[in-house]
Amino acid sequence: MSDDIFSQLFNLFNNDDGDVNWNLASQINNHINNNYTILKYLDIEECSKFILYFEKKKLNNDDFLLDNYFKNLNDLNIENIKLYYLKILKLIKKEDWEEIYNYFNSKKKKKFESTIYLSSSDSYTLSNGPTLYLTDDIEKIGIFLLQTANIPNNILEKIDKIIENNNIINEKINQLEKNYEDIVNKNEKRDIDKLSNNSELKPLIQKINNLKNGIESINLDDIYIPNTKDHLFKNGKKYIQNAFSSSISENIVEKIMLLENIENHWKILLLMGIGVFSNNLNQIYLEIMKELAKNKKLYIIIASTDFIYGTNYQFDHCLIGKDLNNITQEKLIQSMGRVGRNSIKDNYTVRLRDDNFIKKIFFKEDNKIEVINMQKLFNGLDRIEIN
Fold first, then answer.
1. Which CATH superfamily hosts domain 117-151+221-354?
2. Which of 56-65's residues contact partners 24+ apart within 8 Å by CB, and which partners?
3. Partner of 122 at 20 to 30 A CA spacing, among 83, 173, 198, 279?
C-alpha cells in the first residue's frame, strides 16, 4: 500500500506502452474536470509543485502563464490554485507526457515508512485529531490493533480477571436493584416516609452499596495508550508535535466496563482510546461512542461504511480497509469526505489500504447504484439495490 493518493495515482501508470499511459492520464483528467468534488483530496503542495514545474518548462501558453492568470494576490487561494492546476493539466501534450511523468515519479518520497501499526510504532502518523477506520470486518481490525499494541499477556489476563469479577458483582447489583424497584412499586401510594423506614429496603440498599464498593477500577499504563508521551518514547519517538491521543474520563471507562454483552477486547481497546461503531453491539455502548466521537475524545473509531451517512463527526484521518473492495465510487468519496470537515488548518490524510481504490476515485464509473436507486425511488419502483 502506498502512503498517499499521489503515490497511488502514479502506480496506475506502470504500462510499458506509452499510448496506454497517455490514455489513462486523459481519462483521469477528464473525470476530475467533470467532478470538482475530487479537488478536495488533491494535496495543495503537490499541485503547486506541478504548477511551478509546468511554468519552468514553459509548457504553458501565454494565457496560462502564472503572471497573466493570477492578476493579484487576492486570486491566490487554495481553490483557485487547484482549479488552475486542472486547467494546465488539459494543456499537456502527448509528446511531453512521458517526460513529465518520469520527472515526478522520480521525485516521489514516502511520507511515512509504515502506517500499519497504529496502536504501536506508527501511531505518531496520526496527528491533530481522531481517525476513522472503515472496514467490513470490524472484529478483525479490532483484534489486530489490540495484538499489535504489544501489551504483555499477564497485564491482559489481569484486566480480563478484573472485568469478569466486576461483571459478577454488577449482576448481583442489578438483581438487588430490581428487587428494590419491585418493593417500591408494590407501594402504590409511594409514601416516602414509609419507604425510607421500610425494613426490606434498608438491607437491600446496604448490600448494593457494599457491592459497589467492591468494584475494582481498571486502568492501563500510558505506555500502551497510543500517542501519550510514554507510549511515543517506548516506540522510539522522543517528541512528535501534535501526535493525537485519546481523552476518556474515568467515569466513562467505568460505565463501559460494567456494560453487559460487550466482549472484553472492546473494553480493553477503549482503554487505549479505540472505539467501535457497530449495530451489533450494546446500544448504550454505541451511544457513548457517538458522544465521545462528537467531542473528539477517541483516538480511532472502527466502523462499517453504514456510519458514513447522516453523521457530522470530525476526523483528521481516514483509512479505507482493503476488505471494502466492493465499495462504490460514491460511497468511497463520501467516506473520504468525513476528513477535514469545517477546518483547513491541519494536515489531513486519507489512506487507501488497496491501490485499486485509486481507480474508483479517478475514473468515471458508469451505472452508479446510488443513481439507479434514486431513479427507481422517483419512478415508484420497489426493488432497491443494496451495496
1. P-loop containing nucleotide triphosphate hydrolases (3.40.50.300)
2. 57/96, 59/88, 59/91, 59/92, 59/93, 59/96, 60/88, 60/91, 61/91, 64/88, 64/91
3. 279
